[in-house]
Amino acid sequence: MPETRTPARTPRRSGRVSIVDVAAAAGVSRQTVSNVLNGRKEYYSEDTHSRVIAAMDSLGYQPNRAAQSLRSQRSMQIGWHIFGEQLQAMRGFTLQFLQALVKATSDVDHHLVVFTHHDDDALQVFKDLVARRTVDAVILSESGVDDERARFLAEHGLPFASFGRLAPDLPQHWVDIDNAAGMHPLVDHLVSAGHRQFAYIGAEGGEFWKAERLEGFRTALAEHGLRVPANAVLHGDDAAVRAHTRRLLARRNRPTAIVAGNDAIAAVVVNVVHSVGLRAGRDVAVTGFDGGAIGLFTEPTLTSVRIPVERIARELVDRCLRQVRDGAVDGPGLLVPTEIVRGGSA
Amino acid sequence: MPETRTPARTPRRSGRVSIVDVAAAAGVSRQTVSNVLNGRKEYYSEDTHSRVIAAMDSLGYQPNRAAQSLRSQRSMQIGWHIFGEQLQAMRGFTLQFLQALVKATSDVDHHLVVFTHHDDDALQVFKDLVARRTVDAVILSESGVDDERARFLAEHGLPFASFGRLAPDLPQHWVDIDNAAGMHPLVDHLVSAGHRQFAYIGAEGGEFWKAERLEGFRTALAEHGLRVPANAVLHGDDAAVRAHTRRLLARRNRPTAIVAGNDAIAAVVVNVVHSVGLRAGRDVAVTGFDGGAIGLFTEPTLTSVRIPVERIARELVDRCLRQVRDGAVDGPGLLVPTEIVRGGSA
DNA sequence: TCCATGGAATTGAACGTTCCATGAGAGTGC
DNA sequence: GCACTCTCATGGAACGTTCAATTCCATGGA
User: Fold this and answer.
1) Do B64 and A114 touch (CB under 8 A)?
2) Distance between CA atoms of B139 and A92, rounded to whole angstroms?
3) Can you give the residue ranges of the HTH lacI-type domain (chains A, B) (predicted)?
4) CATH topology of domain B179-306
5) pLDDT beyond 80 at B13
6) For A37-69, what is each residue's pLDDT tens digit?
7) Are A264 and A294 in contact (CB under 8 A)?
């Protein structure tokens, strides 16, 4: 009998082309194809490499993620966890950040899976992630310094990276912007434009970045020998911002420059400025912070501080993968610089 | 030697608890645990069911996605593909839609994977998806009637559902809002408030929904015996919208109501209205369309038409899963109703 | 001649689940 | 008592890949 068994050329039931089909076509073994696929150059010759590549191309082979994932214990997926508030409210750069994350992950041949929590237990999502290993790592954004999500992930050994500084006893896997430093060019610009009377309107809430922006604002002013009166530093939600702004503008010695804690607030301020018959950028300078799309929809457009989302996304993904590859690496956090965006509002 | 080899009770190298551990703990077979897991009630008794559940709980068992996926040929993941423009521009509900999708997918025990394309070849992403089967189905948003993505997916047999109507020769797996119908209550409201002089400012581009909103606007007016003058129907990008609005407001017989094609445009219009010293909602009525977060950031807030994103997301996911389960089911598309949102702008 | 060396490739096993075919045991009908 | 059905349960195989160990073969030194 010339051939006892010839299962080789049948495309197998699933119809999809697998690694063994490629192996057969290239005249090598399964494992060799796998090695080529994973670029383990020390295990194959230049010649076989090209034969395998040719076979893969001609068969239109694509490795099966589930199989790779099962065997290698890697999902090739990165999770992104966001709070509902980030979506509800118009945190200007959330969308840009999403796009940046999709790009950053796909650049390293990974996929981005998005998570939110809906019920009370914010950690439930993470318990599932840890147990089922559906993602190799998690990116947290809008994290507080003492983020319970980060703490949980650290305890359970799931790699993560956080957009926002973390407490010293947590692994320092974070990327953040230097909010305080970002304020300086903004203030410099305003002062050199002749402004001396300032007001600050920030978002309510105790997050680190909120305090830091205000602090940076104060420090920057101080460098010019200026200070902001205590009654001109205000906080609040949407409605409060409107009210604050109206009252500020009604004062006898009304501020000539209103510095907002973020673009969304600045947009509201601009609106209120107009609604009382003044003009932003001419009668009152208004600045934001984010540098996102919101600033383009106001009239005039916002002068703001741009957060380099693409860079941040890349760094976060990079930190995640380093942990996946090398185990827990506890490097220092990273502060990325911001840059000022000139619009018409200041 | 007392022990030659005893791999039995050792939790196996990976350290994770698997289906066989549960089986051992419950005193049943692997397959029975699997059956319980998948709710195949005809294959186990009530008694074994509770024993298995108890064992799973006490061991903290979570099924391994990769293994399930490999064997069952289901990834339990749904992809969402978006164009860069949806992220760059402030398509108001993109974020809300994201949140709704995350919720809708997690409600049916699936995950959401987000895709964009970066290079020229928009279909490259889909070629990968088809070949690697990383997702069971794809959700398209902002789809044109003759969407090439939908056509490609239909050809390659990957289930999909589209937010936006599709050409008749494509599988009718779509959900959409009735833009024309949505305009009617808005116009009714304006007319009953006494408005007779209308203008319309829409986004540029030939998308179906843009034409339909304008058409709905016209029809609704006609029902009141009114019509909009040809020179008061305008289109354009951001800058053009500003210019258009200024010119409209400068006319001797300026419109008393400006109907915008979406919230982003309406926001710009409101801004311009204020910047020329008028007040939206008092001197000029302004309406939007989307009913998203943008409308809350203008002063006054926008009167608009709310798109029921949660409902749409649910329906899209549902359509996807029906295809995955039952094969290609070619039901009719679904038009979901909108509702008017009352803000201060009209 | 013999053995160590090392590059290139191969084979058996394993990852954790579900599919498939089969089996044990109890109940039913004749 | 026997065949039949029905419920519940089982073990082997398979999904497609990578890990770990092994083989093959040419080379070179002792």
Assistant:
1) no
2) 24
3) 17-72
4) Rossmann fold (3.40.50)
5) no
6) 999 988 899 999 999 999 999 999 999 999 999
7) yes
Spatial CA neighbour of B142 closest among B98, B184, B106:
B98
- Yes or no: is domain A19-63 CATH 2.60.40? no
The amino acid occupying position A45 is: S
Distance CA B269, CA B257 (A): 11
Give the model confidence (pLDDT) of B28-53 as tens digits.
Answer: 999 999 999 999 988 899 999 999 99
User: How confident is the model over A303-335, as pLDDT tens digits?
Assistant: 999 999 999 999 999 999 999 988 777 789 999
- CATH number of this structure's domain B77-177+310-337: 3.40.50.2300
CB A278 under 7 Å to nucleic chain D: no
**Chain A positions in Cβ-Cβ contact with residue B94 (cut-off 8 Å):** 95
- Residue B183 CA distance to nucleotide C27 C1' (Å): 67
Nearest nucleotide by C1' from A19 CA? D16
- For chain A, give the secondary structure using H, E and C: CCCCCCCCCCCCCCCCCCHHHHHHHHCCCHHHHHHHHCCCHHHCCHHHHHHHHHHHHHHCCCCCHHHHHHHHCCCCEEEEECCHHHHHCCCCCHHHHHHHHHHHHHHCCCEEEEECCCCCCCCHHHHHHHHHCCCCEEEEECCCCCCHHHHHHHHHCCCEEEECCCCCCCCCCEEEECHHHHHHHHHHHHHHCCCCCEEEEECCCCCHHHHHHHHHHHHHHHHCCCCCCHHHEEECCHHHHHHHHHHHHHCCCCCCEEEECCHHHHHHHHHHHHHCCCCECCCEEEECCECCCHHHHCCCCCEEEECCHHHHHHHHHHHHHHHHHHCCCCCCCEEECCEEECCCCC
Question: Is B112 in Cβ contact with A113 (below 8 Å)?
Answer: yes
Q: Which nucleotide is nearest to A30 (CA to C1')?
A: C10
> Cβ contacts (< 8 Å) between B298 and chain A: which residues?
271
Quote the pLDDT of residue A8: 32
Name residues whose C-beta falls within 8 Å of residue B318's C-beta, 6 or more positions apart in sequence. Answer: none
Domain coordinates of chain B in residue numbers? Answer: 19-63, 77-177+310-337, 179-306
State whether residue A70 sits within 8 Å of chain B by CB: yes
Are A77-177+310-337 and A179-306 the same fold in CATH?
A: yes
Question: What's the pLDDT at A88?
Answer: 55
Interface contact A268, partner B, CB < 8 A: yes
Partner-chain contact A69 B66, CB within 8 Å = yes
Tell me, yes or no, if B307 comes closer than 8 A to chain A by beta carbon: no
Higher pLDDT, B189 or A142: B189
- Asked if strand D contacts A20 at the CB level, meaning under 7 A, the answer is yes
The Cα–Cα gap between B202 and B183 comes to 13
Nearest-angstrom CA–CA distance, A15 and A3:
24
Give B-chain residues touching A241 at CB under 8 angstroms.
Answer: none
Find chain B residues with C-beta within 8 A of A95's C-beta.
Answer: 87, 94-95
